[in-house]
Amino acid sequence: MHFPVKKFFSYYKPYLKLYVSILACALIGSSLTLVFPLLVRYITKDVLVGNLSTALNKVFWIGGLMLILAIIQNTANFFVDYKGHEVGARMERDLRSELFAHMQKLSFRFYDKERTGQLMSRITNDLLLLSELYHHGPEDYIKYLVRFIGAFVILIFINPLLTIAVFCFLPVLGVFSLYFNKRLNKGLRRNKERIADINAQVEDSLSGIRVVKSFTNEQEEIRKFNRENNRFLHSRKDTYRSEAYYFNGVETVIQLITITVIVLGSASIVNHNLDLADLITFLLYIGYMIEPIQKLTHMSTQFQEGITGFQRFMEIMNLKPDIENKPNAMFLDKLSGEIEFRNVCFRYEEHLNDVLQNMSIHIYPGEYIALVGPSGAGKTTFCSLIPRFYDVTDGEILLDGMNVRDIDLQTLRKNIGIVQQDVYLFSGSILENIRYGNPSASDNEVIEAAKHANAHEFIMSMPNGYHSEIGQRGVKLSGGQKQRLSIARVLLKNPQIVIFDEATSALDNESESIVKESLEALSKGRTTIVIAHRLSTIRNAQRIIVLTKKGIVEQGTHDELLIKGGVYARLYSKQFELV
Ligand SMILES: Nc1ncnc2c1ncn2[C@@H]1O[C@H](COP(=O)(O)OP(=O)(O)OP(=O)(O)O)[C@@H](O)[C@H]1O
User: For residue 550, which of 527, 538, 566 has the smallest C-alpha distance?
Assistant: First the structure.
Protein backbone atom coordinates (compact mmCIF):
# COMPACT_ATOMS: atom_id res chain seq x y z
CA MET A 1 0.00 0.00 0.00
CA HIS A 2 1.33 3.43 -0.94
CA PHE A 3 2.13 5.35 2.23
CA PRO A 4 0.99 9.01 2.20
CA VAL A 5 4.14 10.54 3.69
CA LYS A 6 3.08 14.16 3.08
CA LYS A 7 -0.27 13.63 4.75
CA PHE A 8 1.40 11.86 7.67
CA PHE A 9 3.68 14.82 8.40
CA SER A 10 1.02 17.46 7.75
CA TYR A 11 -0.41 16.91 11.26
CA TYR A 12 2.74 18.45 12.79
CA LYS A 13 2.09 21.73 11.00
CA PRO A 14 -0.03 23.55 13.66
CA TYR A 15 2.53 22.70 16.37
CA LEU A 16 5.71 23.04 14.34
CA LYS A 17 7.36 25.77 16.47
CA LEU A 18 6.63 24.00 19.73
CA TYR A 19 7.70 20.67 18.31
CA VAL A 20 10.99 22.06 16.96
CA SER A 21 11.78 23.43 20.44
CA ILE A 22 10.96 19.98 21.90
CA LEU A 23 13.39 18.40 19.43
CA ALA A 24 16.02 21.01 20.34
CA CYS A 25 15.62 20.09 24.01
CA ALA A 26 15.91 16.38 23.12
CA LEU A 27 19.13 17.23 21.27
CA ILE A 28 20.53 19.19 24.26
CA GLY A 29 19.52 16.49 26.75
CA SER A 30 21.09 13.62 24.80
CA SER A 31 24.27 15.57 23.92
CA LEU A 32 24.85 16.33 27.59
CA THR A 33 24.62 12.65 28.57
CA LEU A 34 27.68 12.07 26.36
CA VAL A 35 29.76 14.42 28.50
CA PHE A 36 29.49 12.43 31.74
CA PRO A 37 31.66 9.41 30.78
CA LEU A 38 34.27 11.87 29.41
CA LEU A 39 34.41 13.56 32.81
CA VAL A 40 34.72 10.15 34.50
CA ARG A 41 37.57 9.37 32.11
CA TYR A 42 39.24 12.67 32.98
CA ILE A 43 38.97 11.93 36.71
CA THR A 44 40.28 8.36 36.42
CA LYS A 45 42.94 9.04 33.81
CA ASP A 46 44.25 12.52 34.72
CA VAL A 47 43.02 13.64 38.15
CA LEU A 48 43.40 10.55 40.32
CA VAL A 49 46.94 9.92 39.14
CA GLY A 50 49.95 12.03 40.13
CA ASN A 51 49.51 14.63 42.88
CA LEU A 52 46.55 13.40 44.95
CA SER A 53 46.62 16.43 47.33
CA THR A 54 45.19 18.72 44.62
CA ALA A 55 42.98 15.96 43.16
CA LEU A 56 40.14 16.36 45.66
CA ASN A 57 39.77 20.04 44.82
CA LYS A 58 39.55 19.21 41.10
CA VAL A 59 37.04 16.41 41.76
CA PHE A 60 34.84 18.92 43.63
CA TRP A 61 34.95 21.28 40.64
CA ILE A 62 34.10 18.47 38.23
CA GLY A 63 31.33 17.32 40.58
CA GLY A 64 29.92 20.89 40.52
CA LEU A 65 30.08 20.92 36.72
CA MET A 66 28.32 17.54 36.58
CA LEU A 67 25.57 18.92 38.83
CA ILE A 68 25.01 21.93 36.57
CA LEU A 69 24.95 19.69 33.49
CA ALA A 70 22.50 17.34 35.23
CA ILE A 71 20.16 20.25 36.03
CA ILE A 72 20.22 21.49 32.41
CA GLN A 73 19.78 17.96 31.10
CA ASN A 74 16.83 17.17 33.34
CA THR A 75 15.14 20.51 32.66
CA ALA A 76 15.40 19.80 28.92
CA ASN A 77 14.07 16.27 29.45
CA PHE A 78 11.19 17.60 31.57
CA PHE A 79 10.18 19.87 28.69
CA VAL A 80 10.44 16.96 26.23
CA ASP A 81 8.33 14.66 28.45
CA TYR A 82 5.65 17.18 29.29
CA LYS A 83 5.26 19.22 26.10
CA GLY A 84 6.07 16.25 23.85
CA HIS A 85 3.15 14.28 25.24
CA GLU A 86 0.94 17.35 25.03
CA VAL A 87 1.72 17.83 21.33
CA GLY A 88 1.01 14.12 20.76
CA ALA A 89 -2.32 14.44 22.54
CA ARG A 90 -3.22 17.53 20.50
CA MET A 91 -2.40 15.78 17.24
CA GLU A 92 -4.43 12.79 18.33
CA ARG A 93 -7.34 15.13 19.07
CA ASP A 94 -7.02 16.67 15.58
CA LEU A 95 -6.94 13.31 13.83
CA ARG A 96 -9.88 12.05 15.87
CA SER A 97 -11.95 15.14 15.07
CA GLU A 98 -11.10 14.85 11.38
CA LEU A 99 -12.00 11.17 11.31
CA PHE A 100 -15.28 11.71 13.15
CA ALA A 101 -16.22 14.64 10.88
CA HIS A 102 -15.43 12.48 7.86
CA MET A 103 -17.53 9.63 9.25
CA GLN A 104 -20.44 12.04 9.56
CA LYS A 105 -20.19 12.68 5.80
CA LEU A 106 -20.20 9.02 4.78
CA SER A 107 -23.49 7.76 3.50
CA PHE A 108 -25.90 5.01 4.55
CA ARG A 109 -24.25 2.64 2.08
CA PHE A 110 -21.04 2.79 4.13
CA TYR A 111 -22.82 2.21 7.45
CA ASP A 112 -24.83 -0.66 5.96
CA LYS A 113 -21.52 -2.53 5.65
CA GLU A 114 -19.48 -1.41 8.66
CA ARG A 115 -19.90 -2.52 12.25
CA THR A 116 -20.09 0.33 14.75
CA GLY A 117 -17.72 -1.32 17.21
CA GLN A 118 -15.07 -1.67 14.49
CA LEU A 119 -15.31 2.02 13.70
CA MET A 120 -15.08 2.89 17.38
CA SER A 121 -11.87 0.92 17.58
CA ARG A 122 -10.36 2.92 14.75
CA ILE A 123 -11.26 6.18 16.39
CA THR A 124 -9.95 5.23 19.84
CA ASN A 125 -7.26 2.49 20.04
CA ASP A 126 -5.65 3.07 16.65
CA LEU A 127 -5.24 6.80 17.11
CA LEU A 128 -3.85 6.36 20.62
CA LEU A 129 -0.99 4.29 19.23
CA LEU A 130 -0.49 6.72 16.38
CA SER A 131 -0.09 9.65 18.76
CA GLU A 132 2.66 7.71 20.58
CA LEU A 133 4.57 7.53 17.31
CA TYR A 134 3.90 11.17 16.50
CA HIS A 135 5.41 12.58 19.65
CA HIS A 136 7.97 9.93 20.62
CA GLY A 137 9.10 8.99 17.10
CA PRO A 138 11.23 11.96 15.95
CA GLU A 139 12.30 12.80 19.49
CA ASP A 140 13.56 9.24 20.09
CA TYR A 141 15.32 9.12 16.73
CA ILE A 142 17.18 12.36 17.52
CA LYS A 143 18.00 11.30 21.07
CA TYR A 144 19.37 7.91 20.15
CA LEU A 145 21.07 9.02 16.94
CA VAL A 146 23.03 11.67 18.86
CA ARG A 147 24.03 9.14 21.50
CA PHE A 148 24.93 6.53 18.91
CA ILE A 149 27.01 8.83 16.67
CA GLY A 150 28.53 10.64 19.67
CA ALA A 151 29.51 7.36 21.32
CA PHE A 152 30.92 6.06 18.02
CA VAL A 153 33.14 9.13 17.49
CA ILE A 154 34.42 9.04 21.07
CA LEU A 155 35.06 5.28 20.91
CA ILE A 156 37.03 5.67 17.65
CA PHE A 157 39.06 8.34 19.42
CA ILE A 158 39.76 6.00 22.37
CA ASN A 159 40.49 2.81 20.42
CA PRO A 160 39.69 2.42 16.68
CA LEU A 161 40.34 -1.35 16.47
CA LEU A 162 38.02 -2.20 19.34
CA THR A 163 35.38 0.10 17.84
CA ILE A 164 35.56 -1.57 14.43
CA ALA A 165 35.23 -5.00 16.13
CA VAL A 166 32.02 -3.78 17.80
CA PHE A 167 30.67 -2.44 14.53
CA CYS A 168 31.13 -5.78 12.77
CA PHE A 169 28.09 -6.99 14.68
CA LEU A 170 25.80 -4.27 13.36
CA PRO A 171 24.94 -5.72 9.89
CA VAL A 172 23.80 -8.93 11.64
CA LEU A 173 21.56 -6.83 13.81
CA GLY A 174 20.24 -4.92 10.77
CA VAL A 175 19.24 -8.05 8.79
CA PHE A 176 17.70 -9.60 11.89
CA SER A 177 15.65 -6.46 12.60
CA LEU A 178 14.39 -6.17 9.03
CA TYR A 179 13.15 -9.74 8.98
CA PHE A 180 11.32 -9.55 12.29
CA ASN A 181 9.94 -6.07 11.68
CA LYS A 182 7.99 -7.40 8.71
CA ARG A 183 6.49 -10.22 10.76
CA LEU A 184 5.80 -7.88 13.65
CA ASN A 185 4.03 -5.38 11.41
CA LYS A 186 1.72 -8.09 10.08
CA GLY A 187 1.01 -9.32 13.59
CA LEU A 188 0.30 -5.87 15.00
CA ARG A 189 -2.11 -5.13 12.17
CA ARG A 190 -3.92 -8.39 12.83
CA ASN A 191 -4.09 -7.54 16.56
CA LYS A 192 -5.83 -4.27 15.72
CA GLU A 193 -8.37 -6.04 13.54
CA ARG A 194 -9.05 -8.56 16.30
CA ILE A 195 -9.58 -5.94 19.02
CA ALA A 196 -11.88 -4.13 16.61
CA ASP A 197 -13.83 -7.39 16.24
CA ILE A 198 -14.13 -7.60 20.02
CA ASN A 199 -15.42 -4.03 20.15
CA ALA A 200 -17.96 -4.80 17.46
CA GLN A 201 -19.10 -7.91 19.31
CA VAL A 202 -19.47 -6.02 22.60
CA GLU A 203 -21.36 -3.22 20.85
CA ASP A 204 -23.72 -5.71 19.21
CA SER A 205 -24.40 -7.75 22.34
CA LEU A 206 -24.80 -4.83 24.72
CA SER A 207 -26.96 -2.73 22.36
CA GLY A 208 -29.22 -5.73 21.94
CA ILE A 209 -29.12 -6.76 25.60
CA ARG A 210 -32.93 -6.67 25.84
CA VAL A 211 -33.28 -9.09 22.94
CA VAL A 212 -30.52 -11.27 24.38
CA LYS A 213 -32.31 -11.54 27.70
CA SER A 214 -35.75 -12.02 26.22
CA PHE A 215 -34.44 -15.00 24.23
CA THR A 216 -32.33 -16.09 27.27
CA ASN A 217 -29.41 -16.22 24.89
CA GLU A 218 -26.77 -14.99 27.35
CA GLN A 219 -24.74 -18.19 26.94
CA GLU A 220 -24.76 -17.84 23.15
CA GLU A 221 -23.57 -14.22 23.46
CA ILE A 222 -20.83 -15.32 25.88
CA ARG A 223 -19.81 -18.01 23.38
CA LYS A 224 -19.64 -15.47 20.51
CA PHE A 225 -17.71 -13.04 22.70
CA ASN A 226 -15.27 -15.72 23.85
CA ARG A 227 -14.66 -16.76 20.25
CA GLU A 228 -13.55 -13.21 19.38
CA ASN A 229 -11.68 -12.91 22.68
CA ASN A 230 -9.76 -16.12 21.92
CA ARG A 231 -8.98 -15.04 18.37
CA PHE A 232 -7.45 -11.89 19.84
CA LEU A 233 -5.45 -14.02 22.28
CA HIS A 234 -4.10 -16.24 19.46
CA SER A 235 -3.19 -13.22 17.39
CA ARG A 236 -1.35 -11.69 20.34
CA LYS A 237 0.40 -14.98 21.08
CA ASP A 238 1.80 -14.98 17.53
CA THR A 239 2.94 -11.39 17.88
CA TYR A 240 4.56 -12.04 21.25
CA ARG A 241 6.44 -15.02 19.75
CA SER A 242 7.85 -12.76 17.02
CA GLU A 243 8.65 -10.11 19.62
CA ALA A 244 10.37 -12.62 21.89
CA TYR A 245 12.54 -13.90 18.99
CA TYR A 246 13.33 -10.34 18.09
CA PHE A 247 14.09 -8.98 21.56
CA ASN A 248 16.14 -11.94 22.66
CA GLY A 249 18.00 -12.15 19.36
CA VAL A 250 18.99 -8.52 19.74
CA GLU A 251 19.88 -9.09 23.39
CA THR A 252 22.19 -11.98 22.41
CA VAL A 253 24.02 -9.80 19.88
CA ILE A 254 24.38 -7.05 22.50
CA GLN A 255 25.87 -9.50 25.00
CA LEU A 256 28.25 -10.75 22.32
CA ILE A 257 29.39 -7.15 21.80
CA THR A 258 30.03 -6.64 25.53
CA ILE A 259 31.91 -9.93 25.85
CA THR A 260 34.02 -9.05 22.79
CA VAL A 261 34.90 -5.65 24.29
CA ILE A 262 35.85 -7.18 27.64
CA VAL A 263 38.02 -9.91 26.07
CA LEU A 264 39.66 -7.75 23.38
CA GLY A 265 39.99 -4.77 25.78
CA SER A 266 41.68 -6.92 28.44
CA ALA A 267 44.03 -8.35 25.78
CA SER A 268 44.86 -4.78 24.70
CA ILE A 269 45.67 -3.84 28.32
CA VAL A 270 47.96 -6.88 28.58
CA ASN A 271 49.64 -5.78 25.33
CA HIS A 272 49.91 -2.18 26.65
CA ASN A 273 47.74 -0.80 23.83
CA LEU A 274 45.00 0.39 26.25
CA ASP A 275 44.89 1.46 29.90
CA LEU A 276 42.26 0.58 32.51
CA ALA A 277 40.68 4.06 32.49
CA ASP A 278 40.10 3.79 28.74
CA LEU A 279 38.55 0.31 29.08
CA ILE A 280 36.16 1.65 31.77
CA THR A 281 35.28 4.60 29.52
CA PHE A 282 34.86 2.24 26.59
CA LEU A 283 32.45 0.05 28.56
CA LEU A 284 30.48 3.11 29.68
CA TYR A 285 30.12 4.33 26.09
CA ILE A 286 29.24 0.87 24.86
CA GLY A 287 26.18 1.35 27.07
CA TYR A 288 25.31 4.53 25.17
CA MET A 289 25.81 2.81 21.87
CA ILE A 290 23.90 -0.29 22.87
CA GLU A 291 20.96 1.59 24.35
CA PRO A 292 19.82 2.94 20.97
CA ILE A 293 20.11 -0.58 19.53
CA GLN A 294 18.04 -1.94 22.39
CA LYS A 295 15.54 0.87 21.98
CA LEU A 296 15.48 0.18 18.26
CA THR A 297 13.27 -2.82 18.94
CA HIS A 298 10.91 -0.74 21.06
CA MET A 299 11.02 2.09 18.55
CA SER A 300 10.31 -0.19 15.65
CA THR A 301 7.29 -1.65 17.50
CA GLN A 302 6.12 1.87 18.19
CA PHE A 303 6.76 2.76 14.56
CA GLN A 304 4.89 -0.26 13.23
CA GLU A 305 1.94 0.27 15.57
CA GLY A 306 1.73 3.94 14.69
CA ILE A 307 2.03 3.33 10.97
CA THR A 308 -0.63 0.62 10.91
CA GLY A 309 -2.85 2.95 12.98
CA PHE A 310 -2.31 5.67 10.39
CA GLN A 311 -3.01 3.27 7.53
CA ARG A 312 -6.29 2.25 9.17
CA PHE A 313 -7.11 5.94 9.71
CA MET A 314 -6.41 6.65 6.02
CA GLU A 315 -8.52 3.69 4.88
CA ILE A 316 -11.57 5.57 6.17
CA MET A 317 -10.33 9.04 5.21
CA ASN A 318 -9.78 7.87 1.63
CA LEU A 319 -13.38 6.77 1.28
CA LYS A 320 -15.20 9.41 -0.68
CA PRO A 321 -18.79 9.92 0.49
CA ASP A 322 -20.89 8.54 -2.38
CA ILE A 323 -23.54 11.17 -1.75
CA GLU A 324 -22.14 14.68 -1.97
CA ASN A 325 -23.14 18.17 -2.97
CA LYS A 326 -22.58 19.11 -6.57
CA PRO A 327 -20.19 22.09 -6.84
CA ASN A 328 -23.02 24.32 -8.08
CA ALA A 329 -25.78 22.83 -5.90
CA MET A 330 -28.81 25.05 -5.30
CA PHE A 331 -29.36 26.64 -1.91
CA LEU A 332 -33.01 27.27 -1.18
CA ASP A 333 -34.76 28.37 1.94
CA LYS A 334 -38.04 26.56 1.53
CA LEU A 335 -39.43 24.01 -0.86
CA SER A 336 -43.15 23.80 -1.64
CA GLY A 337 -43.18 20.04 -1.16
CA GLU A 338 -43.88 18.77 -4.68
CA ILE A 339 -42.29 15.36 -5.30
CA GLU A 340 -41.96 13.54 -8.58
CA PHE A 341 -40.42 10.15 -9.28
CA ARG A 342 -39.53 9.77 -12.97
CA ASN A 343 -38.77 6.21 -14.12
CA VAL A 344 -36.84 5.56 -10.93
CA CYS A 345 -34.91 2.32 -10.60
CA PHE A 346 -33.00 1.44 -7.48
CA ARG A 347 -30.90 -1.41 -6.15
CA TYR A 348 -28.85 -1.48 -2.96
CA GLU A 349 -25.83 -3.23 -4.47
CA GLU A 350 -24.58 -3.88 -7.98
CA HIS A 351 -25.07 -7.64 -7.59
CA LEU A 352 -28.56 -7.41 -6.03
CA ASN A 353 -31.93 -7.20 -7.79
CA ASP A 354 -33.78 -3.91 -8.30
CA VAL A 355 -35.97 -2.99 -5.33
CA LEU A 356 -37.76 -0.29 -7.33
CA GLN A 357 -38.21 -0.66 -11.07
CA ASN A 358 -39.11 2.13 -13.44
CA MET A 359 -41.28 3.86 -10.88
CA SER A 360 -43.07 7.10 -11.73
CA ILE A 361 -45.33 9.07 -9.44
CA HIS A 362 -46.29 12.68 -8.85
CA ILE A 363 -47.08 13.93 -5.33
CA TYR A 364 -48.52 17.44 -5.04
CA PRO A 365 -47.60 20.06 -2.40
CA GLY A 366 -49.57 19.52 0.80
CA GLU A 367 -50.89 16.12 -0.30
CA TYR A 368 -51.38 13.36 2.29
CA ILE A 369 -50.22 10.07 0.83
CA ALA A 370 -50.41 6.63 2.37
CA LEU A 371 -47.97 4.04 1.10
CA VAL A 372 -49.18 0.49 1.61
CA GLY A 373 -48.09 -2.91 0.43
CA PRO A 374 -46.62 -6.19 1.55
CA SER A 375 -43.49 -6.30 3.65
CA GLY A 376 -40.29 -5.98 1.63
CA ALA A 377 -42.08 -4.26 -1.30
CA GLY A 378 -39.79 -1.23 -0.99
CA LYS A 379 -41.85 1.35 0.93
CA THR A 380 -39.02 2.41 3.23
CA THR A 381 -36.61 2.34 0.30
CA PHE A 382 -38.95 4.63 -1.67
CA CYS A 383 -38.89 7.16 1.18
CA SER A 384 -35.10 6.90 1.70
CA LEU A 385 -34.51 8.07 -1.85
CA ILE A 386 -36.26 11.43 -1.35
CA PRO A 387 -33.72 12.87 1.15
CA ARG A 388 -30.93 11.15 -0.85
CA PHE A 389 -30.00 8.64 1.81
CA TYR A 390 -29.27 6.59 -1.31
CA ASP A 391 -29.02 7.81 -4.89
CA VAL A 392 -31.26 6.30 -7.55
CA THR A 393 -29.63 3.78 -9.87
CA ASP A 394 -31.58 5.14 -12.83
CA GLY A 395 -34.21 7.79 -13.52
CA GLU A 396 -34.62 10.90 -11.39
CA ILE A 397 -36.44 12.32 -8.40
CA LEU A 398 -37.60 15.93 -8.61
CA LEU A 399 -38.54 18.23 -5.75
CA ASP A 400 -40.30 21.39 -6.87
CA GLY A 401 -39.21 20.46 -10.40
CA MET A 402 -35.51 20.25 -9.47
CA ASN A 403 -33.49 17.05 -9.50
CA VAL A 404 -32.64 16.19 -5.88
CA ARG A 405 -29.02 15.76 -6.97
CA ASP A 406 -28.90 19.45 -7.91
CA ILE A 407 -30.22 20.66 -4.56
CA ASP A 408 -27.82 21.43 -1.74
CA LEU A 409 -27.98 18.48 0.69
CA GLN A 410 -28.60 20.71 3.72
CA THR A 411 -31.46 22.49 1.94
CA LEU A 412 -32.91 19.17 0.88
CA ARG A 413 -32.75 17.46 4.25
CA LYS A 414 -33.84 20.55 6.18
CA ASN A 415 -37.07 20.44 4.19
CA ILE A 416 -37.78 16.82 5.00
CA GLY A 417 -38.78 15.53 8.42
CA ILE A 418 -38.75 11.82 9.16
CA VAL A 419 -40.42 9.93 11.96
CA GLN A 420 -38.83 6.52 11.81
CA GLN A 421 -40.48 3.23 12.64
CA ASP A 422 -37.78 2.45 15.14
CA VAL A 423 -37.55 5.86 16.81
CA TYR A 424 -34.01 6.79 17.76
CA LEU A 425 -33.63 9.12 20.72
CA PHE A 426 -30.32 10.24 22.19
CA SER A 427 -29.46 9.82 25.84
CA GLY A 428 -30.15 13.13 27.56
CA SER A 429 -33.23 15.03 28.65
CA ILE A 430 -36.59 15.27 26.91
CA LEU A 431 -35.91 18.95 26.26
CA GLU A 432 -32.62 18.19 24.52
CA ASN A 433 -34.20 15.47 22.43
CA ILE A 434 -37.03 17.62 21.12
CA ARG A 435 -34.66 20.54 20.56
CA TYR A 436 -32.59 18.27 18.34
CA GLY A 437 -35.10 19.26 15.63
CA ASN A 438 -34.02 22.87 15.87
CA PRO A 439 -31.09 23.66 18.18
CA SER A 440 -31.90 27.38 18.23
CA ALA A 441 -35.51 26.89 19.44
CA SER A 442 -36.49 28.48 22.75
CA ASP A 443 -37.89 26.47 25.68
CA ASN A 444 -41.35 27.82 24.86
CA GLU A 445 -41.12 26.67 21.26
CA VAL A 446 -40.10 23.20 22.47
CA ILE A 447 -43.10 23.09 24.81
CA GLU A 448 -45.39 24.30 22.03
CA ALA A 449 -44.16 21.51 19.72
CA ALA A 450 -44.63 18.96 22.49
CA LYS A 451 -48.21 20.18 23.03
CA HIS A 452 -49.02 19.79 19.33
CA ALA A 453 -47.53 16.32 19.38
CA ASN A 454 -49.70 15.37 22.39
CA ALA A 455 -46.56 14.83 24.45
CA HIS A 456 -46.84 17.71 26.94
CA GLU A 457 -49.10 15.90 29.36
CA PHE A 458 -46.99 12.79 29.81
CA ILE A 459 -43.83 14.91 29.99
CA MET A 460 -45.30 17.03 32.79
CA SER A 461 -46.33 13.93 34.70
CA MET A 462 -42.68 12.86 34.91
CA PRO A 463 -40.77 13.90 38.07
CA ASN A 464 -38.45 16.32 36.29
CA GLY A 465 -40.79 17.35 33.47
CA TYR A 466 -38.88 18.45 30.39
CA HIS A 467 -35.58 17.89 32.19
CA SER A 468 -36.26 14.19 32.78
CA GLU A 469 -33.50 11.94 31.51
CA ILE A 470 -34.80 9.33 29.07
CA GLY A 471 -31.91 6.83 29.30
CA GLN A 472 -29.91 5.41 26.42
CA ARG A 473 -32.04 5.41 23.25
CA GLY A 474 -35.04 6.44 25.36
CA VAL A 475 -35.37 3.17 27.29
CA LYS A 476 -37.35 4.88 30.02
CA LEU A 477 -40.21 5.74 27.63
CA SER A 478 -42.99 3.69 26.07
CA GLY A 479 -43.19 3.12 22.30
CA GLY A 480 -46.04 5.63 21.90
CA GLN A 481 -44.22 8.23 24.02
CA LYS A 482 -41.07 7.85 21.94
CA GLN A 483 -43.08 8.34 18.75
CA ARG A 484 -44.72 11.48 20.10
CA LEU A 485 -41.33 12.91 21.07
CA SER A 486 -40.10 12.09 17.62
CA ILE A 487 -43.12 13.88 16.12
CA ALA A 488 -42.47 16.93 18.36
CA ARG A 489 -38.85 16.91 17.17
CA VAL A 490 -39.98 17.04 13.53
CA LEU A 491 -42.63 19.69 14.32
CA LEU A 492 -39.88 21.88 15.72
CA LYS A 493 -37.83 21.31 12.59
CA ASN A 494 -40.84 22.52 10.61
CA PRO A 495 -40.10 20.86 7.26
CA GLN A 496 -42.28 21.06 4.14
CA ILE A 497 -42.23 17.31 3.60
CA VAL A 498 -42.96 14.77 6.31
CA ILE A 499 -42.30 11.06 6.09
CA PHE A 500 -43.91 8.96 8.79
CA ASP A 501 -42.88 5.34 8.96
CA GLU A 502 -45.60 3.90 11.12
CA ALA A 503 -44.47 1.58 13.90
CA THR A 504 -45.54 -1.98 13.24
CA SER A 505 -45.29 -2.89 16.91
CA ALA A 506 -48.76 -2.79 18.37
CA LEU A 507 -49.52 0.38 20.25
CA ASP A 508 -52.63 0.01 22.36
CA ASN A 509 -55.77 1.65 20.95
CA GLU A 510 -55.51 4.65 23.19
CA SER A 511 -51.90 5.52 22.41
CA GLU A 512 -52.54 4.73 18.75
CA SER A 513 -55.26 7.36 18.59
CA ILE A 514 -53.03 9.86 20.45
CA VAL A 515 -50.19 9.23 17.96
CA LYS A 516 -52.73 9.58 15.13
CA GLU A 517 -53.81 12.98 16.45
CA SER A 518 -50.16 14.04 16.70
CA LEU A 519 -49.61 12.93 13.13
CA GLU A 520 -52.58 14.99 11.99
CA ALA A 521 -51.06 18.06 13.67
CA LEU A 522 -47.75 17.27 12.00
CA SER A 523 -49.18 16.83 8.52
CA LYS A 524 -51.10 20.12 8.47
CA GLY A 525 -49.92 22.24 5.51
CA ARG A 526 -47.15 19.80 4.59
CA THR A 527 -46.69 17.09 2.00
CA THR A 528 -47.04 13.92 4.04
CA ILE A 529 -46.10 10.37 3.16
CA VAL A 530 -47.20 7.77 5.66
CA ILE A 531 -45.88 4.25 5.35
CA ALA A 532 -49.02 2.72 6.71
CA HIS A 533 -49.48 -0.56 8.45
CA ARG A 534 -52.73 0.43 10.13
CA LEU A 535 -56.08 1.10 8.49
CA SER A 536 -56.81 4.03 10.76
CA THR A 537 -53.99 6.08 9.25
CA ILE A 538 -54.92 5.07 5.71
CA ARG A 539 -58.53 6.27 5.82
CA ASN A 540 -57.50 9.91 6.19
CA ALA A 541 -55.18 9.80 3.20
CA GLN A 542 -56.04 11.82 0.11
CA ARG A 543 -54.39 9.13 -1.96
CA ILE A 544 -53.34 5.60 -1.17
CA ILE A 545 -50.49 4.16 -3.19
CA VAL A 546 -50.21 0.39 -3.25
CA LEU A 547 -46.67 -0.77 -3.74
CA THR A 548 -45.77 -4.40 -4.39
CA LYS A 549 -42.65 -6.04 -5.77
CA LYS A 550 -44.09 -5.31 -9.23
CA GLY A 551 -44.12 -1.55 -8.48
CA ILE A 552 -47.13 0.73 -8.00
CA VAL A 553 -50.11 -1.47 -8.76
CA GLU A 554 -52.99 0.73 -7.56
CA GLN A 555 -53.65 4.23 -6.34
CA GLY A 556 -56.74 6.17 -5.25
CA THR A 557 -58.77 6.97 -2.16
CA HIS A 558 -59.80 4.35 0.35
CA ASP A 559 -63.30 4.09 -1.09
CA GLU A 560 -62.15 4.00 -4.70
CA LEU A 561 -59.72 1.19 -3.97
CA LEU A 562 -62.28 -0.83 -2.03
CA ILE A 563 -64.69 -0.61 -4.95
CA LYS A 564 -61.91 -1.68 -7.30
CA GLY A 565 -61.52 -4.89 -5.31
CA GLY A 566 -57.80 -5.32 -6.03
CA VAL A 567 -54.71 -5.74 -3.86
CA TYR A 568 -55.74 -3.00 -1.44
CA ALA A 569 -59.21 -4.41 -0.96
CA ARG A 570 -57.67 -7.80 -0.19
CA LEU A 571 -55.16 -6.27 2.26
CA TYR A 572 -57.96 -4.35 3.89
CA SER A 573 -60.29 -7.26 4.34
CA LYS A 574 -57.41 -9.38 5.69
CA GLN A 575 -56.61 -6.78 8.33
CA PHE A 576 -60.26 -6.25 9.02
CA GLU A 577 -60.69 -9.94 9.70
CA LEU A 578 -57.75 -9.77 12.10
CA VAL A 579 -59.01 -6.74 14.00
N1 LIG B 1 -29.63 -1.46 3.31
C2 LIG B 1 -30.07 -2.44 2.53
N3 LIG B 1 -29.20 -3.16 1.83
C4 LIG B 1 -29.62 -4.15 1.01
N5 LIG B 1 -30.92 -4.48 0.85
C6 LIG B 1 -31.85 -3.80 1.53
C7 LIG B 1 -31.46 -2.75 2.42
N8 LIG B 1 -32.60 -2.24 2.98
C9 LIG B 1 -33.62 -2.94 2.45
N10 LIG B 1 -33.19 -3.88 1.60
C11 LIG B 1 -34.00 -4.81 0.81
O12 LIG B 1 -34.84 -4.03 -0.01
C13 LIG B 1 -36.15 -4.59 -0.09
C14 LIG B 1 -37.18 -3.52 0.29
O15 LIG B 1 -37.03 -3.19 1.65
P16 LIG B 1 -37.88 -2.05 2.35
O17 LIG B 1 -37.37 -1.92 3.75
O18 LIG B 1 -37.87 -0.85 1.52
O19 LIG B 1 -39.33 -2.72 2.36
P20 LIG B 1 -40.67 -2.20 3.07
O21 LIG B 1 -41.72 -2.28 2.03
O22 LIG B 1 -40.46 -0.91 3.74
O23 LIG B 1 -40.87 -3.36 4.13
P24 LIG B 1 -41.61 -3.28 5.58
O25 LIG B 1 -43.04 -3.03 5.34
O26 LIG B 1 -41.37 -4.66 6.11
O27 LIG B 1 -40.91 -2.23 6.38
C28 LIG B 1 -36.16 -5.78 0.83
O29 LIG B 1 -36.04 -6.93 0.03
C30 LIG B 1 -34.93 -5.61 1.70
O31 LIG B 1 -34.36 -6.86 1.99
Answer: 566
